[in-house]
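Re: your question from the hallway

Yes, I did run it. Sequences:
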Amino acid sequence: MASRKKVLLKVIILGDSGVGKTSLMNQYVAKKFSNQYKATIGADFLTKEVMVDDRLVTMQIWDTAGQERFQSLGVAFYRGADGCVLVFDVTMPNTFRSLDSWRDEFLIQASPRDPENFPFVVIGNKIDLENRAVSARRAQGWCHSKGDIPYFETSAKEAINVEQAFQAVAKNAMAQESDVELCSDFPDPIKLKDDQAKPRENCAC
Amino acid sequence: MACEEFPNNFDVVVLGTGLTETIAAAAFSRIGLKVLHLDRNDYYGGAYSNFNLDGIEDWRKANETRNSDCNEDEEIPDKVKDLLQNGETVISLNRDNKTAFNIQARFHVRERTAEEQAKADLKFNTFKFPSLNEQNPTSDISQEEEEKKEDAEQSESPATDSGVSSCTEKLNEMLSLTTTSDNTAEVCEIKDFSQPEPPKSDCEDSHAAQVENPPKHREWTVGDIKDDWRRYCLDISPKILYCCGDLVDLLIQSDVARYCEFRSVSRVLTVLNNLLLQIMNLALKNIKANYLDKPFIEFLKSKKLTPNIQHYIQHAIAMVTDSELSQVGLTKTKKFIQSLGRYGNNAFLFPLYGTGELPQAFSRLSAVFGGIYCLATTATHLIADSDRKCCGIITSKGQRISCRYVVAECSYLPPSLVLKLNKRMLSRAVYITDSSLLPTGDSELSLLHYVSPKDSERPVTVLELPSSACVCPKNTFIIHLTTISNHNDPSEDFNDVRETLFANEVLVQNKDTVKPKILWSIYFNQEDNSKVKLTEDAVTNVLVASGGGDPGVDLDWCVAEAKVIFHTVCPTEEFLPKPPNPEDIILVDDAEASTCQGTSEYLEKNKEEISEIQETVSTDSVQEAV
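Structure:
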């Protein structure tokens, strides 16, 4: 299909502060890990090109920029998300319990066309730590009850399973994308860029 | 999602998340200052917010119970006193505020019958649990939509026409569109100045088109609209951006543009029987000093223009009233012309999902650079030291925060500290309608400056938005109306425009069906808080930001206001310079830091500069923001 549009997927990462959202994103895109991400500073969104079923897809991964810390993510953050990664810390049960409210918050704010089949992925992060407190079975159970959300256990620090988790969200988002393409009957919206020539300030007229 | 305390020290505390405050907050964070940004509401934007259908109902109810009065003489609670140090005093702040008055909202369609409700429930259920049926839940109308889609594609004009780059060219091309008049015309479309297509001389064309392609005669019910409540994005201060305006330039320069997308306002409509004008060229070439202080209308008359062309320039392009001075009219005309050609052949842009997205975009930039955001939290008191200099706040959670400056939207400050220079109210109406004012495809955004023959000094700005602007579901339109208030009841300010442009609710049959039918409406008054300044009683190091409510179409003045606020605090710093690429903003371990180009080093570098500036900024420098 030569004439197919270039695909851009917006994927957002949600979860309590400190579960490793920024680390996961950086590990996945930049292959870097730092213990220093106390509260997110300077994390915006990163883009990565991935192959999904022989198709090149640009994945734009949006961090919360720390605005989740005081429950102050505006609705604009959620707009137009094609996929959502829900993250908890396997050593912190309260971050696992928050998944329900993050999922609900996402569905309310992003209001996707088909909430039951929206491509979520759940990540239990920090499996490299000793003091694990949420079992894989418990997390699996929750994911199953929410319409079989794919579940991945990762370590952003050790780069375990990170690639697989993001690949899964890209794949599932693309599966939805083909539905969406059918209904997008409008031309692409305008992105403001520098390259559009600005008409001269002092034109002759 | 547990709540923690804020750090105790900031450089700047910003109260209110309207556009001016968020631009300023982004600018402060961008150069490394520590910013705490609070809003008393649980949503962003203040007077610039946008809501879905449920949200706007909550907003209406909240405004009914809200109290704008600040009891400045109230006794200071002991727990606040306990947080003060020697010689410090506190000033009580407004905790609550009405953002709108006289709000009336209602549906103009009937409720569903029990039978229809049962049917809808069934459909809703298949939508919620589509386990077996893979079909799109709206498949019963999909064919119709396919057809519509094709229509829309055909009517889509080429997105960019790069040949048009200078105003002169544009104007010359305009000249090729000569005009003829026809008295039967009602709404004329002025479109695509550079396309030398034969001009539609009147509305007969478009009316004929409607007959061929009649709008769907669907009877709407309250339930039909409520089912899609989340798909509506209703701005309480709908605004558009000049393509060559300061806000567009700032969005690009600061990279905040990467957080938002836009649509062109593709049609400028005017209610007159005539079309295009030769005069643009003449008018701009002959900016004569002796007209600058005379009304714009006199300038136009002196150019021997026909009344229709005068009308068009005055109302559709410059959007000024009869008494407006030439200088203003010409400046606006020039800005309009300059804006053509930058993003397609239209002068204005509208943000997808609404104006309310813009403050959130600037907030995000601030957060990316370390700004701390907390909604549903405000400051109850300002703390002033013995020199009447502001040195902190008490939050509504009872925490003392020290800071060097407080930037507050005017409604956060008590009346004794703020002078409101524009003593007037706006009236606004928002309609959900079943069709466009001028149906020629379903993806046009339209601007109309409506001048009532009865009151030419109070024109109504009409902004029509289709579903492609992501503000409403398919087959509906959002129409915003704004005017300066003249009646106690805001709906009365729109009687004339409503009768002229919209279907009469009582006589819905036949004749009026080409006009859009109002399915739902909200009316309200907003106070014009766009020009404010601090009184002499104010403590130093407090800066005030306007609170919206101006009748203009654009927001460029907010950029100027934010710049003044920023430069008052940081006179020598660059205002929102281009940030490094997101890929470069990565914090790394200390070990790596020395070789890293990322933020940590960047911020460190700025810290030094900032501390230098802190020393040079005189603490009692200018307090007025505007």
